[in-house]
Amino acid sequence: MKGIKFDFSNVFQPNIENGLNEDEINQYKDIIGEIVNKIIEENPGFLSLPFTRVYIDRVLDLKNWVQSFESVVVLGIGGSALGNQALQVALNPLNYNVLPREIRKTPKIFIIDNIDPDFVASNLDQIDPRTTLFNVISKSGTTAEAMANYLVARGIVESYGLDPKSHFLFTTDPQRGVLKKIAEEEGIRTLDIPPHIGGRFSVLTPVGLLSALASGIDIIDLYNGAKDMHKKVTNPNLWENPAALNALIHYLYYQRGYNISVMMAYSNKLFLLADWYRQLWAESLGKKYNVNGEVVNVGQTPIKALGTTDQHSQVQLYNEGPYDKIITFLQLENFQRNIVIPKIHDNFSELSYLGGKSLSTLLNAELAATEYALTHNNRPNLKVIFPQTNPYNIGQFFFSYEFQTVVMGKLLEINPYDQPGVELGKKVTFALMNRLGYEELRDNVEKQTKSKKQVII
Ligand SMILES: O=P(O)(O)OC[C@H]1O[C@](O)(CO)[C@@H](O)[C@@H]1O
């Protein structure tokens, strides 16, 4: 069951009162055609990925070595972890790590994407360093969190008297950064993150591919999905291009004050795609300056939600709160597991309607019900439909949303590839941790902290 579909019906009139109409969309036909052609011409790094074998082959070369470990631990953050997590959860059983090796067949996967000591320690408690491979992922090789966790892991490996070469694999920029230098000095294996592909666009590079392969995910089919989606998203005809149409829909609603984009997955396995999307949409589009250097302060806030769980937490707000949200449902048609609700208590009508039906039928009925209610309340919503969670469909999703984000960036006239807004925080962290070269910044931060008006109760 290959190929995701996009259902845009509920963003349009008459389904939604005051919704978009086709004429409004058609006015952008030429603009979108130009944007699509411009992106093809600019050829951003991620765009040609599905047509190159180099990263897949390099990762496949390491297959036997990587799969010989009992555990593979990813140490990275942001774009160097979110895609990995989304892939693991979508494509492996949710209880993958606790399955016996005979059933799992491939190593346990841990993704340590924070420096909270409780979190790091509880992950490390579960591994035996002698049978663990640490995949340190950092494009820049400077991110404090990834580097701190590398040092922690390195300390453990050394304390066991193990050879770092046999327990570390660095995924990093081939031309810069301290990881590259250490790897060269010590003969540690490396995988390249192409210099021209930013972290949040890197899931289909060795960043996401290695841990996916380690756990037995078919990375070639992941690429096949991306490749087939490439055909669709590079089509300059707006009505045949789901990524461009989705970007335009979000843009037009954003212009009307819809500042929030909710991605609500009706599947625990698809839920972390929404996490991956949050970074992509937020870091790419939340910008102070436009391409002409003017202050614009644009961006649409991405929110993730889980159905049905968040029906009992968020949906009241989505239905009756401000008209500021466009909602994307992720629907799964066929689940890997099936549970039929037993027919018990047939004499109680409150329960008897459930007996004999499957949980997935109930889940998708609840999705249809939420969709109906939102539409009834004139809240724009759309749906990405996954016939199944397989590598092909997940590859399609990643690729489509990467392209969509760039189209949205062009519509907003900003640069979707940089993230200057996170730099100051990174530098102040270095200063506060007494990194050499950051003394002046540290003084400024201290001065500001001392002179600041305090309101602490
Ligand atoms: O891979 P790196 O260089 O460690 O960066 C991790 C993340 O940090 C950021 O640079 C800023 O949050 C992201 O863009 C990136 O994905």
UniProtKB/TrEMBL annotation:
Cellular compartments annotated: Cytoplasm
Q: In which pathway does it act?
A: Carbohydrate degradation; glycolysis; D-glyceraldehyde 3-phosphate and glycerone phosphate from D-glucose: step 2/4; Carbohydrate biosynthesis; gluconeogenesis
Q: Which InterPro entries match?
A: G6P_Isomerase, Phosphoglucose_isomerase_CS, SIS_dom_sf, SIS_PGI_1, SIS_PGI_2
Enzyme Commission number, as recorded: 5.3.1.9
Record's keyword terms, sorted: Cytoplasm, Gluconeogenesis, Glycolysis, Isomerase
Residues forming the catalytic site: 283, 312, 426
Q: Which reaction does it catalyse?
A: alpha-D-glucose 6-phosphate = beta-D-fructose 6-phosphate
Q: What Gene Ontology biological process does one annotation of this record name?
A: gluconeogenesis
Q: Does the keyword Isomerase apply?
A: yes
Q: Does the keyword Nucleus apply?
A: no
What domain of life is recorded for the organism? Answer: Bacteria
Record-level Gene Ontology MF annotations: carbohydrate derivative binding; glucose-6-phosphate isomerase activity; monosaccharide binding
Pfam name, any one? PGI
Instruction: Choose one Gene Ontology CC annotation of this protein and give it.
Output: cytosol
Its annotated function is as follows:
Catalyzes the reversible isomerization of glucose-6-phosphate to fructose-6-phosphate.
Q: Which family does it belong to?
A: Belongs to the GPI family.
Name recorded for this polypeptide: Glucose-6-phosphate isomerase
Q: Which organism is it from?
A: Defluviitoga tunisiensis
Its lineage reads: Bacteria, Thermotogati, Thermotogota, Thermotogae, Petrotogales
